[in-house]
Amino acid sequence: MSPTLVRHQLPNSGSVHGDDPPPPPGARTRTRDWAEIQERMLVPLYEAAYDRLGVGPGTRLLGLGCGSGLALLLAAGRGAQVSGVDADESRLELARERLTADGTPEHTRVVSGGLEEAASGNAAFNVVTAFHPVGCVSSVEGLTASLKAAAGLAERGSAVVLGGWGPVERCATAGVLRVAQRLADPLRTAGGWRPSGRDDLEELAERAGLRPDGSGRVACPFGYADMSSAVRGLLSTGLFDPALEVTEQRQVEKELAEALHPYQREDGAVWMPNVFRYLIARTR
């Protein structure tokens, strides 16, 4: 099965536009910021899940909300055959660049289409990932539907990895993300960030018709070289987009920097310890 990337309306952090308002100005710059600054913060989560599942040759992986493709690239580096779907075409462009760069398999193929096209002509998947934290998607119902559809493209008993924030008291970034909540329109219910509940991942798996089969916690500190990088990285997540729709960007950046100040070290670096959680579920 060739590595495949397709455009698909999947809810994920900052990449769902569908019937929502168009992305804010500077969205392409934020895509670059996501790929160059923020995306790597979740590498420990990706690697922990891959280690637990033994991802490697023989793995046929489908990444939901694959973004700019770092998680897919790591799986491909282990010998897995990978496909990815995402709603954000600008992030997919970067994923294509990564997966077609020198040194990647010659049979890499990048297409544009829907979820079904990711499996067209290929063997069934045996691993599905949805790494974006549940508290960051714009629609749990949409994510549930996507997981059900993806499960239908996978072998029976295949692993489905769901990602989420750990306990709020162990996630320093939670306090910073509350700035996004406070600045956004209080009547807006779609998008944005919310604290994770203890059983969020299990409830999502149940709604999607999946069978839980173990979980784990992973330290995913958010570290930035300086305050500017921290602000740019966090804005690239899309979690501040609702705030940017109703508040001037300069004000959002100012209040975000103020919230980050307690985590800035003497050398100017910003460091926030976080714990993320993942659930391994199985298709029935």
Low-pLDDT windows of residues: 9-23, 106-111
Strand content: 15-25%
Any idea what the radius of gyration is?
A: 18 Å
Q: Secondary-structure element sequence?
A: EHHEHEHHEHEHHEEHHHEE
What structural class do helix, strand and pairing data support?
A: alpha/beta
Provide the spatial order of strands within the biggest beta sheet: 1-3-2-4-5-9-6
Explain this structure.
The protein is α/β, with parallel strands linked by helices and 284 residues long. The chain is 37% helix and 20% strand. The protein contains eleven helices and nine strands. It has helices at residues 27-38, 43-53, 70-77, 89-99, 115-119, 140-151, 173-183, 200-207, 227-235, 241-246, 249-260, and strands spanning 4-7, 60-64, 81-86, 125-130, 154-165, 211-219, 222-224, 270-272, 275-282. The strands form two sheets. A seven-stranded mixed β-sheet has the order 1-3-2-4-5-9-6, sandwiched between helices. It has a two-stranded antiparallel ribbon with strand order 7-8. The relative contact order is 0.18.
Q: Nutshell version of this structure?
A:
With 284 residues, this protein is an alpha/beta fold. It has helices at residues 27-38, 43-53, 70-77, 89-99, 115-119, 140-151, 173-183, 200-207, 227-235, 241-246, 249-260, and strands spanning 4-7, 60-64, 81-86, 125-130, 154-165, 211-219, 222-224, 270-272, 275-282. β4 (125-130), α6 (140-151) and β5 (154-165) form a beta-alpha-beta unit.
